[in-house]
């Protein structure tokens, strides 16, 4: 496979970075081609703006998705976006590596999503969910957080982790057509022993070695809905 790791942590010595480095090593050793977009090292610009476009369909009013579509087609989109799109298109698997911030991804990673998952290429019209533009590719979240594992679940203090991450898992990755693998999570990382951290790395190693056995998360498909996207009778 061609693997793209989009890494978003400001500290090169962090445990999140150690997980990213492990993924590079394990996947490379398995014969995969691995490329890393280290967003902080790249000083990636997370702000979507008119500056992303070399030409404008409408210079008087910015409709960002429309300009994405036109500028991608005309190859006039900003060079940093174009470089990331090239990596994305080449990838069979995209791993998002980050620390959880406020039940979500860091701003720099959200900016990558906003700017790189361009309209026209990754979605548009009824090209979304199982018909999205990145259909056939796989994606997974590999992240760290401060909470303990028992804090997440149906009756737990923070609720279910999948519900917390729905905007990313469903509203982003599945929306553009990717098969979304179950996330790998390093729990309670700032507070655990070196031995416990090493165990997380060992668990991640096993996870990466068994990617082919992982079943993607299940989401609705467009054939369960009619032309106006109402649920078909009997579909749930």
Arithmetic mean of pLDDT: 96
Q: What percent strand?
A: 5-15%
**Series of secondary-structure elements, N-terminal to C-terminal:** EHEHHHEHEHHEEH
Give start-end ranges of low-pLDDT stretches. Answer: none
Distance between the termini: 35 Å
Q: Could you describe the largest sheet, including whether it forms a barrel?
A: 6 strands, parallel
Radius of gyration: 19 Å
User: How many individual β-strands?
Assistant: 6
Structural account:
The protein is an alpha/beta fold and 236 residues long. It is built from 8 helices and 6 strands, in the order E-H-E-H-H-H-E-H-E-H-H-E-E-H. Strands 1, 2, 3, 4, 5 and 6 form a 6-stranded parallel sheet that branches. Strand 1, helix 1 (15-29) and strand 2 (33-38) form a beta-alpha-beta unit. Helix 1 (15-29) runs parallel beside helix 8 (194-209). The radius of gyration is 19 Å and the shape is globular. The two termini are 35 Å apart.
């Amino acid at each position: 496979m061609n693997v793209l790791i989009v890494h978003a942590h400001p500290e090169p010595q962090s445990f999140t970075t150690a997980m990213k480095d492990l993924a590079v090593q394990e996947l490379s050793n398995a014969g995969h081609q691995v490329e890393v977009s280290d967003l902080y090292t790249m000083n990636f610009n997370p702000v979507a703006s008119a500056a992303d476009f070399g030409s404008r369909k409408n210079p008087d009013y910015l409709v960002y998705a429309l300009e994405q579509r036109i500028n991608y087609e005309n190859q006039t989109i900003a060079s940093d976006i174009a470089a990331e799109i090239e990596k994305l298109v080449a990838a069979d698997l995209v791993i998002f590596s980050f620390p959880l911030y406020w039940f979500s991804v860091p701003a720099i990673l959200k900016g990558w999503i906003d700017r790189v998952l361009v309209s026209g290429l990754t979605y548009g019209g009824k090209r979304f969910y199982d018909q999205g533009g990145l259909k056939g590719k796989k994606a997974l979240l590999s992240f760290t957080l401060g909470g303990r594992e028992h804090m997440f679940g149906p009756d737990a203090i923070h609720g279910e982790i999948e519900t917390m991450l729905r905007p990313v898992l469903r509203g982003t990755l599945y929306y553009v057509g990717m098969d979304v693998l179950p996330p790998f999570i390093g729990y309670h990382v700032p507070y655990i022993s070196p031995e416990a951290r090493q165990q997380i790395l060992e668990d991640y190693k096993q996870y990466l070695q068994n990617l082919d056995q992982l079943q993607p998360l299940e989401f609705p498909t467009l054939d369960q809905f009619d032309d106006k996207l109402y649920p078909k009778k009997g579909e749930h």
